[in-house]
Specification:
The complex is a heterotrimer of chains A (333), B (304) and C (285). With 333 residues, chain A is α/β, with parallel strands linked by helices. Chain A contains twelve helices and eleven strands. The relative contact order of chain A is 0.15. Chain C has two domains: 104 residues, Translation factors (Elongation Factor Tu (Ef-tu), domain 3, Beta Barrel); 131 residues, Rossmann fold (3-Layer(aba) Sandwich), CATH 3.40.50. The chains are: A alpha/beta (333), B alpha/beta (304), C alpha/beta (285).
């Protein structure tokens, strides 16, 4: 299906069309900046932001979700959570990350019905980037500022208009059903979009991820990992903000009468501590190794892709400014 | 500051090349714009990378409990390291607290007292805002580490007078208003534990929030659990928090934890005359009592 | 959506019988029956697989299935109680008639079908013997025994009181179609059997590696010392099969916790060959 355009001044009509599908999650301004929040009929979606602090995975894999409920001495399926019908405005990095997380949560053998339900219910409209963030490196991590992977529709903001491209059948269906909203883009608009994406790509410093993956497959000595994790606080900011990190724990919560799936982090000191007290990853270097290897060695081996989308959140969030780009460069030394 | 940096580097190199310490904990240039970051210099060559500028915000004392912890699988003949640390006033106050609580052997520490003019405010992104002094530094009552072994010459900020004006203004609001403001702010917490790990005082092997038998706090995304975590952590800071804002700067959600940590700090000063590392003596505040310690919170809990 | 399609929701099972296995009374075998018979009919496992046992309120733990797939009408698990473990302590406090949850079967299991026609050496130490017991019960079943060659069992525990499944051990020792060697690290006044660590007994018994595979389960220290005699006897690393344990949460390869390198113990394991373990160790996992 060809690209369609929406004049910026008509964006409220788009909001209305989206709201007809159900709950819409999109960019809203609050005291902290622009966040992914609930759009209402009064909302004119904000499009001037770099990226949301929190990753889009939280819309499909929430921080805390009941996966089973206790009823007397029975354990039953949990009810469906509050699902969004539309998730709009996530960046291409977050959309790509979603496709990675989906492969873990819905593999050939076991499908996580809660993730699946949320993903199936949502129309994901990503928004291409018109500028690179200070720590972005998506072009070195399998993505790009206008990458469509993982979304149902890819949109681009070229100032006076929004351009839309369908990526999946679900996306195409929405654009077709609402064709009255859209018009054909001009040649100039299409060119502007291309130029914008190229500009953003050019501004990003490249990271030789492929070389790092190759080097990691050969292994690095323990001293290397001890070295890069020296100033790590084992805090978990990186993992909680990472759009591809998916580690979780299952905990019984008597208070809410449910079995909860909660975000967890391999960087936490007690992540793999056993009941006997033995901790296979007692050292920070071992935990750092696990994180980096999972993303840049095990994922390539198991899924043919790195589990990093170059969004730069970990670089910005780390209290010790440990930089994954430097780690990847260091791996090849 | 360039001169200060040169002098600091020379001191660090001397300590390392003379074998007086195994590591100098300081800062090096960061990879983020407007950021310097913690760095462990273990040789004179490493020490060449040390910096001193307006981005040296982190509280380096947070690394001390980790450095002095006996490793899980220690190599034969493991001994605690000898550590030097480029200390601002806040680092110094934290170190005093860690020594006071027997977490760090003072004899193994060389405190390199730095002249601190105040650091630049840190944005949520982790990078510093140019030309805006960090709030913690504006309000800092002791910009220089009190107990330095090596003192680097230079000008420091004038110590501020502790006023806790913002906390007092907040405390004057109604309980309903305060609860609303507190829960609104704290509900953005994603329980990543960055605040806890960045805090030099949070060195417990098993944090109360991670305990399982019994489980005091669950990781559920319920307001009650988030509140329980933060209130628990705040109260564990009473008489210990040095108001360095390490937790505030570490928080990826930009939560204003200072409003709450300062309440505990203000109470410590008001009720016990205790400001860790500044006044009140050397015994941890809650480890002792005097006859005239207030009991109003037991006898007249409703009285303000 | 059917419950079996939701991998997070356990089957409801009832404790039919609890057997205390050892003198220290911290090892109990729980015989479980499915509360819904159709769940029981649908449940079918392979030896070496495990299940997540759920004690509501306490949590879940991964435990190897100790009964054979041919033991109809029940599933058995032998669980050690760790004083610091929330779930094992809660489980040990339960009795006949109490209900718990079961998610499974999970994991890959021993490749017994592929080993038909081979001689099998089964080596176990301590309470890691549980899934081996499942395998032995299966292998010695009337309908199965003829499919395999010689079967040799070497099983050791710290002391006579710590041996699991004492009654079955005695029965196996009476059989002529299996060679059973039981040993203890240190005997007691009434112990008439063998004394010696499992690795030493392996060397003494010296089973032939010809057309043979070895399945060995035990605590890490026992595995470490049992591999050299096996290799010396001529067992190839690909022919030595073992089972790994890690702390687990989901048990279905999603929560990122139990991996050894790129492999998840819950999904790609827990059964791995020694060759695979050596490869992982070489990579520094």
């Amino acid at each position: 299906m060809a690209t369609v355009a929406l004049d910026r001044k008509n964006s409220k009509k788009l909001t209305a069309a989206l709201l007809r599908l159900g709950r819409v999650r999109g960019p809203v301004k609050d005291e902290t900046g622009v966040v992914l929040g609930d759009l209402t009929s009064k909302s004119d979606p904000v499009l001037e932001y770099q990226n949301f602090t929190l990753p889009a995975k939280r819309e499909f894999f929430p921080q805390c979700e009941a996966v089973a409920k206790f009823e007397g001495d029975n354990v039953r399926e949990a009810a469906d959570g509050d699902r969004a019908a539309v998730v709009f405005g996530i960046r291409p990095c977050d959309a790509l990350a979603l496709s990675h997380v989906e492969r873990v949560f819905c593999d050939e053998k076991y499908a996580d019905p809660y993730f699946r339900g949320r993903r199936d219910a949502a129309l994901v409209i990503s928004l291409a980037c018109d500028k690179a963030g200070p720590s972005c490196f998506c072009t070195s991590a399998g993505g790009g500022p206008a990458s469509a992977k993982g979304a149902d529709i890819l949109s681009s903001n070229i100032g006076t208009a929004l351009l839309f491209d369908s990526v999946t059948a679900k996306g195409e269906s929405f654009l077709k059903k609402n064709k009255g909203l859209f018009r054909k883009p001009t040649a100039a608009e299409l060119t502007k979009r291309e130029k914008q994406a190229a500009d953003v790509s050019r501004r990003m410093k490249a990271v030789d991820t492929a070389a790092a993956v190759k080097s990691l497959a050969a292994g690095r000595p323990a001293a290397f990992w001890e070295g890069i994790s020296e100033t790590c606080l084992s805090c978990g900011a990186c993992t909680f903000l990472c759009p591809t990190c998916h580690c979780f724990d299952l905990r019984d919560d008597i208070g809410t009468g449910a079995r909860l799936r909660v975000h967890d982090a391999c960087m936490f000191a007690t992540f793999v501590t056993e009941a006997s007290g033995h901790n296979p990853r007692a050292r920070k270097g071992e935990r750092m190794r696990q994180r980096v290897m999972h993303k840049f060695s095990y994922a390539p081996e198991n899924y043919d892709t790195v589990f990093c989308v170059g969004c730069g959140r970990c670089v910005e969030a780390c209290p010790s400014n440990i930089d994954i780009r430097e780690t990847l460069a260091g791996v090849t030394e | 500051m360039v001169d200060t940096e040169k002098k600091m580097k020379a001191a660090a190199k001397k300590l390392l090349s003379e074998g007086k310490v195994d590591v100098v904990v300081g800062f090096c240039k960061g990879s983020r714009k407007n950021a310097s970051r913690p760095f462990f210099a273990k040789s004179a060559a490493d020490a060449e990378l040390l910096v001193w500028d307006g981005f040296c915000t982190a509280n380096l004392a947070a690394f001390l409990p980790r450095l002095f912890e006996r490793p899980a699988r220690p190599k034969d003949g493991w001994k605690p390291p000898r550590v030097a640390l480029t200390a601002k006033g806040c680092d110094g106050r934290s170190i005093a607290g860690l020594v006071r609580e027997n977490q760090v052997p003072r004899a193994n520490l060389v405190i390199i007292g730095m002249p601190c003019e105040g650091m630049l405010a840190v944005q949520k992104s982790g990078s510093a805002k140019k030309n805006e002094t960090a709030r913690a530094c504006v309000e800092c009552v002791s910009p220089e580490a009190a107990d330095a072994d090596v003192r680097i010459e230079g000008t420091s900020r004038k110590p501020a007078k502790a006023s806790y004006g913002r906390v007092k203004a907040f405390a004057a609001k109604s309980a309903a208003e305060r609860w609303k403001a507190f829960t609104k702010e704290i509900s953005r917490c994603i329980r990543c534990n960055a605040c806890r790990e960045a805090c030099p005082n949070c060195y417990c092997k098993v944090c109360f929030a991670d305990q399982r038998k019994p489980s005091w706090v669950s990781p559920a995304n319920e307001l009650s659990e988030t509140v329980a975590f933060h209130m628990g952590r705040m109260f564990h800071q009473a008489g210990r928090c040095v108001e360095c804002d390490a937790c505030v700067n570490a928080c990826p959600m930009g939560i204003d934890l200072r409003l709450f940590t300062q309440k505990l700090a203000a109470d410590a000063v008001e009720l016990f005359g205790f400001a860790p590392g500044v006044s009140g003596g050397d015994v941890p505040m809650l480890h002792t009592f005097t006859q005239d310690d207030t009991e109003r919170f037991i006898t007249d809990p409703e009285e303000k | 959506m059917s419950r079996t399609a939701n991998p997070y929701v356990p089957y409801k099972v009832r404790i039919e019988k609890v057997t205390v296995e050892n003198d220290e009374r911290d090892l109990k075998t729980f015989r479980l029956a499915f509360c819904d018979p159709s769940d029981g009919a649908a449940f079918s496992h392979r030896c070496g697989q495990f299940a997540m046992l759920h004690v509501p309120g306490a949590g879940e733990i991964p435990i190897g299935i100790a009964s054979s797939p041919l033991d109809k009408g029940y599933v058995e698990f032998t669980v050690k109680r760790y004083p610091t473990g929330s779930v094992t302590t809660a489980l040990h406090d339960l009795s006949d008639g109490d209900t718990i949850g079961l998610r499974g079967p999970l994991g890959n299991g021993f490749p017994l079908d592929a080993l038909k026609g081979k001689n099998l050496l089964v080596v176990g130490g301590g309470f890691a013997f549980t899934t081996l017991r499942a395998a032995i019960r299966y292998l010695l079943h009337d309908s199965v025994r003829k499919d395999y060659g010689d079967i040799t069992i070497i099983y050791g525990a710290r002391s006579p009181g710590e041996l699991l499944y004492k009654q079955e051990l005695a029965e196996w020792q009476k059989r002529s179609d299996v060679q059973t060697h039981i040993t203890v690290d240190k005997g007691d006044a009434s112990w008439k059997g063998r004394e010696g660590f499992v690795p030493a007994v392996v060397s003494q018994v010296a089973p032939s590696p010809a057309n043979a595979h070895c399945i060995v389960c035990g605590p890490p220290i026992m595995l470490k010392f049992t591999m050299p005699p096996l290799l010396t006897l001529g067992f190839a690393p690909e022919a030595i099969i073992t089972s790994q344990e890690r702390r687990m949460s989901c048990g279905i390869g999603k929560c990122g916790r139990c991996n050894i390198g790129p492999k998840y113990v819950c999904k790609d394991g827990p059964v791995f060959t020694y060759a695979q373990m050596m490869e992982m160790e070489k990579r520094g996992e």
